[in-house]
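Bug #77: duplicate submission created two jobs. Keeping one. Sequence:
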Amino acid sequence: MSDLLDRTIEAHGGLERWRGVRAIDVVFNFSGGLLDLKGFPGHHRPAVSVDALKPRAVLSAAQRRS
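Kept job's structure:
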């Protein structure tokens, strides 16, 4: 690996820690005037789970709040 990549991995817990990661979960927050104009009013929170071991991402339905 490159020196920059080695230092980055080490700064974030080391390679052994990252080999133990199974998934990365993210929740997005969307709201605003453009969504209102497009017919999607309110506050939306879609979630994504990215599998760290194989090329797979799962999108869950957006949680909607007014």
